[in-house]
Amino acid sequence: MIIDTLRNAERYYSLHRGFKTAFEYLNSTHLNALENGVIELGDGIRVIVSNDAGRSKEAAAQTFECHNQNIDIQVTIHGPETMGWKPRADCQNVESPYNAEKDYMFYSDEPDTFFSLNNGQFVIFFPEDVHMPMLGEGAIKKLVVKIPV
């Protein structure tokens, strides 16, 4: 997992072939103006825009998730948004087995760590990062960039 601000995104271009495409899009787009939906960037990279109500820890616990086929870059546009995290290797309680079609697996473990992102900050979740997004009060506008592993 990596946490940083969009202004430092260039530092991460070399970590994965899709990061440059993703971060250049994020840094050249007026993110507040984006409507809910999915934007295809090519090479399997897609951006999911959402503007939803923040959830309680109990509600968010239903989606303590990880992915096998994609890396997530999650960007808070309007928040703050709190998230939970735990290393996948330390998770013991599978809630829903891996769904290859939707690329997710859910755990019922408790996160080890909680952190908050403010506007313009991002987190990168790799397949080994189990994460619980959308904790908070009020509306949270965010982007999730899905980058094929």
From TrEMBL:
Pfam families: DUF386
Entry-linked InterPro entries: NanQ/TabA/YiaL, NanQ/TabA/YiaL_sf
Alphabetized PANTHER family for the sequence: EVOLVED BETA-GALACTOSIDASE SUBUNIT BETA (PTHR34986), PROTEIN YIAL (PTHR34986:SF1)
Name the UniProt record assigns to this protein: YhcH/YjgK/YiaL family protein
Lineage summary: Bacteria, Pseudomonadati, Bacteroidota, Sphingobacteriia, Sphingobacteriales
